[in-house]
Amino acid sequence: MSPLSPPARRRRGVARRVVPAVVAAAGLVLASAVTATAAPPPTTSATDPDVGSAVVFDPSMPVSEIQATVDAVHAQQVSDEMGSGRHAFLFLPGTYGTDAEPLQVKVGYYTEVIGLGASPGDVVINGAVEVYNQCFDDPTNPEFVGCFALNNFWRGISNLTIDVNTAGQGGCEASANFWAVSQAVSMRRVDVQGANLTLMDYCTGPSFASGGFIADSRAGVVINGSQQQWYARNSEFGTWTNAVWNQVFSGVVGAPDDSTYPDPPYTTLETTPVSREKPYLYVDDAGAWQVRVPVAKQGTRGITWADGMTAGRSIPITQFFVATPDDSVQEINNQLARGRHLLLTPGVYDVSRSIQVKRPDTVVLGIGLATLHSVGGAVPLTVADVPGVVVAGVTVDAGEVESPVLLQVGKKNTPKAARKSSGSNPTTLSDVYFRVGGPYVGKTDIALEVNSDDVLIDHTWVWRADHGIEGFDRTDGVFGDNERWRTNIGRNGVVVNGDRVTATGYFVEHFQEYNSVWNGEDGFVVLFQNELPYDPPSQAEWTQPDGTLGWAGYKVADDVERHTLWGGGVYAFNRNDPTIVTEDGYEVPETPGVVLHHIMTKNLSGPGIIAHVVNGVGGRVDGIPDPGDPDDYEDPEYVVRYPLP
What we know:
Elements: E1 55-57, H1 63-77, E2 87-91, E3 94-96, E4 103-106, E5 111-115, E6 123-130, E7 134-137, E8 145-148, E9 155-164, E10 177-178, E11 185-193, E12 197-198, E13 213-215, E14 218-223, E15 229-233, E16 236-240, E17 246-250, E18 266-269, E19 272-276, E20 280-283, E21 289-294, E22 296-300, E23 312-316, E24 320-323, H2 329-337, E25 341-344, E26 348-351, E27 355-357, E28 363-366, E29 371-374, E30 381-383, E31 390-392, E32 395-397, E33 403-409, E34 427-436, E35 443-450, E36 455-464, H3 481-487, E37 489-496, E38 502-509, E39 516-518, E40 523-531, E41 554-556, E42 563-572, E43 581-587, E44 594-603, E45 609-614, E46 637-642
Parallel strand pairs: 1-2, 2-5, 3-6, 4-6, 5-9, 6-9, 9-11, 10-12, 11-13, 12-14, 13-15, 14-16, 15-17, 17-18, 24-25, 25-28, 26-29, 27-30, 28-31, 29-32, 30-33, 31-34, 32-34, 33-35, 34-36, 35-37, 36-38, 37-39, 38-40, 39-41, 40-42, 41-43, 42-44, 43-45
Antiparallel strand pairs: 7-8, 19-22, 20-21, 21-23, 44-46
């Protein structure tokens, strides 16, 4: 077992569950998918599936009972960043909370709040679903003093309506629905009504928040506040209040104008070049559980559910193997080979051999931040070079023995003529996250390797941990950095070898050489966020063999002829050695077909230097305030377009 063993399995959690014969998805008749081959006999009930430790709520339950359940989980998870708990709250169609007794759901680490309706309007939370700042007072860690959302990772909300009712909350907390989060957090298919949605907690701040992701959602006033960067895709907003360093929008109705970039630093694309919404669970009118798999589209704008059900196919839950951490990889692979899809219920899965997805159009859906933990240097998940596979809601952790890669899509060095892909039905990774270090020592050469063509990466956070509980000696380093550099190994975060790969919401941080390496042609990226590693011990260990100072956060291979990036941010904070220099934030071939729009670099008001933004162009950031700046703040450096016009 891993150092973080999964919790004991609980059938449907602690809450009572009742499945009504008819649920509130009125007027929608949902067809099941037609498969090319006969499905194997079901292993789960169509109307009463065992969803492991996930908790299923019914609207007939007393609000007090639901409130007690979610409060108990939040108390466990509010500060358990490196723990093994994984939780999913599943709300059957209906309304939860009343005007007099609203339901207030606070969302901690590794917790996902999911509505089970065919439309977000089928599940209504009369109350709030919220994340607040965490407050720290640790004199041994000066960076962890105060209240901020900088580490509010690993959580999500999807497929429901929040009719904001903050009755009974404190004065400041009653002013909005708070969603003060950072990386590995997604908001999808959410309709916020009746009050503002704020992405910062201004009640105990404002202070640091490091960016997040919204897709296929609707809200009135969105208060960005202290969010340093953010990506919003295919949504509808009344107002977006402000920018900080790098705010990026594509296909968003109501997105701010970017014509005066970088003042303010908005990047707005009228449409999203390639999009596919994440699969979602729902319960149909007959009480049967289904997974809706949206179709991929090009040139999209706005929400998918305004005029009816999101376009796509519905797959009965009976065609899924519903796995728990008790199930072996052998059994999971046997079920996949028989033609089943895979639903990973909450938990930490120790994976000592690869889970292999070989069939086209297979769906792998995790709920509750289901986590695959590599054991013995295994590659936890491989996807064959076939079209239409969707992997969503899965976190992949490195283990103590170095893996060559944590998730591999397509085999490396496959001849182009032999690659099987589809631009209209791309293999898609949605809310797929990676972690190297943190709860335990982690080692991998590459986290994510994409060898197939026509792959869509729709929101990922690829993180080599800059802090954790691995037990490193802190006597000569900050957060154990004196040991972390040589113990938590991660050379590259993402390596893309396939052609026509699109990434929307591309967060990659702290790897020991290039964080992102793009070798394929016709790559298209919308929002890139990167922090260079904090922990190189010296300039000598942060220098390439050819003498180049450091590795750029974003690297496009020298022989690539066509590539596009919109809205990039690369940040430096070299806390082991303040004199360390990184030559460029971005390194790309100088050719007309490789174009970077709206890119920036920033020193995080501390040690370390980035000499140029891209290829020797753009100013230096070194943490020293510019004239007129506050004593502890230095402006970012921006390049509007490269090559320069």
